[in-house]
Amino acid sequence: MLVAVLAVVVIVLVVLAFQRTRGGAPVEQSPRPIPSFSPTPDVTPSPTATPAALPIAAPGAEERFLSVGSGALWRATAGACGETAPLLERSTDDGRTWNDVTPRYLGIGQILSLNAFAGTEAQLVALMGADCEVQGLRTFTQGRFWEPNDDVLAGATYVLPDGAEVVTPSGSVETPCTHAWGARAVAGTVGLICDGTAFVREGSAWEPAGRDVVAIAASADGLGTAALDGDCDGLMVTAEATPVCVASAASARPAAITLSGTDILLWAGDTITREPAP
């Protein structure tokens, strides 16, 4: 009897031991590393900075004017009334030689505009006399004699000496900067230069028409410009939106340009250059 009881006890102990082994605490396992994902950076190309416009100051007394008629070229250096005398010259051999035709006997102090007319003649707006009065002048003798002309003054476009206002046949207009210069006008196109930027009048507003500009010319189709350009060793001249590098200009400043038929005339340094308009 005792043996039977002991056998039962042994069997029970074996079963309990087996159950403890299967239902015991789980074996600890080392935690697996959690994968990490680094986001791919959003690589956006840095925009190329636009080079700043060159600081091209108004030339003041050294401002140049150039105009062409069918029988003569006319050029002038503005001067400064009461300080620096202006110079007006005329050429009949396409700029190889020049004659001084400045009307000093009339007391001319500063030239504000210059335009050829009637083939061999010219007209201009200038500050005259000790009071620097604005007058229009015209010659009918190829520059030998000049006389005041109110019609010339009424039809002219020019910047007043302070650079803050441009006078046109339809009235005065505020300029887009405080020291504008180089005003040119033909057939409704009015342009000027402010700190190296060319502007053209569109309706009642000034619109940019070129940068790093040292001279402009007006035509019925818009503005022609002469500008500094990194791709040109001289001046880049643009008319009708097609640029031409005039290397002989050697980036000379001040300068003046004018349009003559299908040609562009550039006065830079001591040279008049004629380039076919592209």
Strand order of the largest sheet: 1-2-3-4
Structural class: mainly beta
Unreliable sequence segments = 1-41
Order of helices and strands: HEEEEEEEEHEEEEEEEEEEEEEE
> What share of the residues lie within helices?
under 10%
Count of helical stretches: 2
Please give the alpha-carbon distance between the first and last residues.
130 Å
Cα Rg = 41 Å
What's the total count of β strands?
22
Q: Outline the biggest β-sheet.
A: 4 strands, antiparallel
- Strand content range: 35-45%
Write down the overall mean pLDDT. 84
Overall morphology: globular
Describe this protein's structure.
By secondary structure, the protein is mainly beta. It is 10% helix and 43% strand. The protein has 2 helices and 22 strands. The longest helix has 22 residues. Among the domains are: 95 residues; 93 residues. The N terminus is likely disordered. The strands form 6 sheets. A 4-stranded antiparallel beta sheet has the order 1-2-3-4, with no helix packed on it. It comes from Microbacterium caowuchunii. This is Exo-alpha-sialidase.
List keywords for this structure.
278 residues, mainly beta, 4-stranded antiparallel sheet, single chain, disordered N terminus
Describe the secondary structure blueprint for this structure.
Blueprint: H1 2-23, E1 64-68, E2 73-77, E3 87-91, E4 99-100, E5 108-117, E6 121-128, E7 133-139, E8 147-148, H2 150-154, E9 158-159, E10 165-168, E11 171-174, E12 181-186, E13 189-194, E14 197-202, E15 205-210, E16 213-219, E17 222-227, E18 235-239, E19 242-246, E20 255-260, E21 263-268, E22 271-276
